[in-house]
Amino acid sequence: MSQREMIFVLIHAQLCAACRERLIASPETVLASHALTEEEKKTLGQLKAADFLTPERLVQAAAVSTAELAEYANHPVVRLRHL
Ligand SMILES: [Zn+2]
Q1: What radius of gyration, in Å, describes the C-alpha atoms of the chain?
Q2: Which of 8, 27, 62, 70 is found 20 to 30 A from 38 (Cα to Cα)?
Q3: Contact predicate 83/23, CB 8 Å
Q4: How far is the CA of 19 from the centre of ligand 1 (A)?
């Protein structure tokens, strides 16, 4: 079970091209302000643009469950808070 914060970062990066590009280009800078474990930062830092192409690929690359992504997909914080 992943932390909610990690799921928020994943879903926002999926929805928002600007944040996704920043995350891929400089993960350490983008993730520094988020309450994530070192392991979560490592996982998120390894994501590539191709991993965001489909929800299935993202789930696999980030080692989260489809249910976890779906649970927060429509959460207002996910949509409104940029990374
Ligand atoms: Zn954003």
Answers
A1: 11
A2: 70
A3: yes
A4: 4
Residue range 18-70, pLDDT digits in tens:
999 999 999 999 999 999 999 999 999 999 999 999 999 999 999 999 999 99
Alpha helices in the chain (DSSP H): 4-15, 17-25, 27-31, 38-45, 55-62, 66-72, 76-80
Phi-psi region of 81 (alpha: psi -120 to 50; beta: other; left: phi over 0): beta
Q: Which domain holds residue 13?
A: 4-80
**Rounded distance from Cα 33 to ligand 1 centre (Å):** 14
Structurally, how many domains does the chain consist of?
1
Q: Which two tokens stand for residue 72?
A: 């927060």
